[in-house]
Each structure stands twice: as structure tokens, then as C-alpha cells.
Design brief:
Helices cover about 40% and strands about 20% of the residues. It has about 80 residues and is of the alpha+beta class. It has a domain at about 25-75. The protein has a three-stranded antiparallel β-sheet. Strand 1 and strand 2 form a beta hairpin. The radius of gyration is 18 Å and the shape is flat.
């Protein structure tokens, strides 16, 4: 019985992953600014068309820019 439940869960996961549409990235979301949070960690804010726009938006040490990870994912798919 346990094997049937596990097999059904795996099958449901595979079917769900095939039906989720890919997220598109707009031209103004190519670069992300990683903003340091007061409680620790960083949260990416992806709203910059160029790397320079992203760098100019930094307000504190420790904030850094990177290419939007969703773009790399789209290229692999």
C-alpha cells in the first residue's frame, strides 16, 4: 500500500511539473540587485535592464548585482 501511495505522489509531481508554464522575463528584469535584509540574508530585486543601472541603484555596501537566474533557466529549457 505504501508503494502505491509513493508511486501516485511521484506521478502527480511529474504531471504537475509538465503543466506549469514557464515564467517569462521582461527586458527590464535582466539584472537583479541583491539587497541585504535587516534580519539577515538577501532578497533579489530584478528590475534592471542593464548591469550599470543595477550598480547605480546600490545604496549600501554588501549589495551586489547579478544576471536574473530565471534567464539562465529559460535558456536551459
Amino acid at each position: 500500500m505504501k508503494r502505491i501511495i509513493v508511486a501516485a505522489a511521484v506521478l502527480a509531481g511529474l504531471l504537475y511539473s509538465q503543466t506549469v508554464p514557464a515564467q517569462t522575463v521582461g527586458r527590464n528584469e535582466r539584472f537583479c540587485l541583491n539587497v541585504t535584509e535587516p534580519r539577515g540574508g538577501a532578497s533579489p530585486r530584478c528590475r534592471y535592464a542593464t548591469y550599470q543601472q543595477c550598480m547605480d541603484s546600490r545604496t549600501a555596501n554588501g549589495e551586489w548585482c547579478m544576471e536574473n537566474p530565471a534567464i539562465g533557466f529559460q535558456q536551459r529549457v
